[in-house]
UniProtKB/TrEMBL annotation:
High-level lineage: Eukaryota, Fungi, Dikarya, Ascomycota, Pezizomycotina
Signal peptide (residue range): none
Predominant subcellular localization, coarse grouping: membrane
Coiled-coil regions listed: none
Protein name: RTA1 domain protein
């Protein structure tokens, strides 16, 4: 049964659903194939390449979960499915951050920080989440953990896993949201609105597209992570696009227009 009751010999602690994983694997395959076609059609691998990769992780994870539903004592299948399913959401978040960065490149006058730093800053956060996921999975499934404290933590995580992985909860609040996010980008693909070249940006009139010089960064990657807004460089006078020097969009001939007009010329 898939009612969440403990099942002897099951590495899932219960009988996993035999229907939901197949449905989600098929839907993520459709979305992933669609994303791959869009990457090729719109030449948008630099913007959305992570989306088909994320869908691939979900497809593999749910395919193994479907197989595991018929082989509930197979630890390897359980590990592969769990790692893939738990690793995909942070990568999808990273893909969203990357699109956010490209949006900030397109409207630089609205960017609260260097657009390129959205990927590095939030990417580090996603990496941390991935590490925590890996540690959690290892404590849940590794039979070689001997210390009492680690075993106690493992028992707590197992109880949490029993709650979090019960069919209704995981499908409704995890997989369904990730699937909705993936199909959202299918229906409103970023390349329909953003140029292929990140140097191209939207002028302050909200209509004209201009070729810009791009953003410069004098900070090291360490300082970029510590200070994504570039406050230290600005205060020290090292920021060429701040301080005494005008930003490139402030000398493009549209700098005196209100931000931002629509296509009818209204603010």
């Amino acid at each position: 049964m898939t009612d969440g009751r403990p099942v002897p010999g099951s590495v899932y602690f219960y009988q996993p659903s035999k229907v939901a994983p197949a449905i989600f694997a098929a839907l993520f395959f459709i979305s992933g194939a669609w994303h791959l076609w869009q990457c090729i059609h719109y030449k948008s691998f630099k913007i959305t390449a992570l989306h088909p990769f994320c869908c691939l992780l979900f497809v593999v994870g749910f395919a193994f979960r479907e197989y595991g539903a018929y082989h509930i004592s197979n630890v390897t299948v359980y590990l592969v499915s769990t790692i893939c399913i738990y690793s995909a959401p942070p990568i999808l978040e990273l893909a969203n951050y990357h699109v956010l960065g490209r949006i900030l490149y397109y409207v630089p006058y609205f960017a609260p920080l260097h657009p390129g730093r959205t990927l590095t800053t939030f990417g580090m956060i996603s990496t941390l989440v991935e590490v925590l996921n890996a540690l959690g999975v290892s404590l849940l499934a590794n039979p070689n953990v001997k210390s009492q404290s680690a075993q106690d933590l493992g028992h707590v995580l197992m109880k949490m896993a029993l709650i979090l992985q019960m069919v209704v909860i995981i499908w409704t609040f995890e997989a369904a949201l990730m699937l909705s996010n993936s199909f959202l980008w299918n229906g409103s693909h970023p390349r329909l609105y953003l140029p292929e070249d990140y140097h191209v940006y939207l002028a302050q009139d909200g209509v004209t597209e201009l070729q810009g010089p791009g953003w410069e960064s004098e900070q090291s990657w360490v300082m970029t992570f510590i200070d994504p807004c570039g406050l230290t460089a600005m205060l020290s006078g090292q920021n060429k696009q701040g301080g005494q020097n005008k930003k490139f969009w402030e000398t493009n001939g549209f700098e005196n227009l209100p931000l931002v007009r629509n296509r009818e010329g209204q603010v």
